[in-house]
Amino acid sequence: MLKPHKNLLNMGAISREEIEIIFNAASAMKEICLRDIKKVPTLRGKTIMNLFFEPSTRTRSSFEVAEKRLSADTINFSASSSSITKGETLIDTANNLQAMNPDAIVIRHPLSGASDLLAAHMNTPVINAGDGMHEHPTQALLDIFTIIEKTGGLQGLKISIIGDITHSRVARSDVIGMTKMGAGVTICGPPTMIPPGIEELGAKVTYDINKALDGADVVIMLRLQLERQRQMLFPSTREYSKYYGLTSKRLANTSKNIIIMHPGPVNRGVEISSDIVDGPWSLILDQVNNGVAVRMAILYLYVIGDSDASFA
Question: Which of 26, 92, 103, 249 would be a feasible disulfide site paired with 46, CB 3.0-4.6 Å?
Fold first, then answer.
C-alpha cells in the first residue's frame, strides 16, 4: 500500500522508495498505453477535478488523458470562467469543491504555495501540477522515469540543467528528485537567472555552458520564462542564445551517448536548436509519452493506494 502522504505537493516529501513504487506502477500503466484499447476500469466511479489557474498544454492534456484511461470522471475547472473572477478566494473555492466530494484534485496555479494552501483545507488528495516558481513534482517524476528507462538508473549520472533556473519550478523539483536518486546535478545559466541558495538543494552551479556540458550524461534545457520576469534579465534573446543556447557545435564536444531533454514548451533557436530537438539525442517526445503513464500511476496510487495491484 502507498499512503505515506495524502497529497503530492513537492519532491522533498516523498522518499526514494516511494518514487520507485510510483515507477513500478508507471511501468504497468505504460503497457496499458500501448494496447489497442487504452482504457481500464481502475478509477471507475471516481471523480477527479482539474483546477488550472494558468495556461497549460502538456500537463493539462497529460492529466486528462491519464484520467480518462483510468475511467475516472473528469471535471475541468478554468479560472477564467469561475467565481475566482468575481473575487472568490482559493480557500472558499476549496470549501465549495470539498462539498462536492471529489476523489482527487489536480491544481496548477501561478502563485507558489497555492497547492499547499488548497491541501490544508481539503480532505481530498491534492496533486500539484505546478505552483508558481516553486515546484512541479509530476514533471520531475516523469523526467526521472524517462532517464531510468533509457539508462537503467540515475546512480552516478551527471545531469546538467541549463537555462532560466530562477523562474523554473521544474528545475527545483528535478534537482531534489534526481539527487535523491543518486545523480550529480549541475545547474547553469546567467548569474541573473540563478536563485541564491540553490546549492542547498544539492546542486553545483556554473555560469559557463561548456563546463555544464563537459562530462554530462543528461542535459535538460529550460526556456526563458519571460512572462514571469518583471524586467528582462538578459540583453536580448539573441545574445542569450549565443551564450546559453544548445547548438550542434556545442553538442559535438560532448559524449556521443548524451541525452537531451526539455520539459516544454520549446523555443526553437533560443535555448535549443531545431536539429537537436528533432535529433537522435532528444528524449523530448519520450517525456511527453511517459508523462501519461507516470500520471496514471500517481492518480491511482494517491486515490486508491494499492501498490500491489495488477491492472486488467
Answer: 103
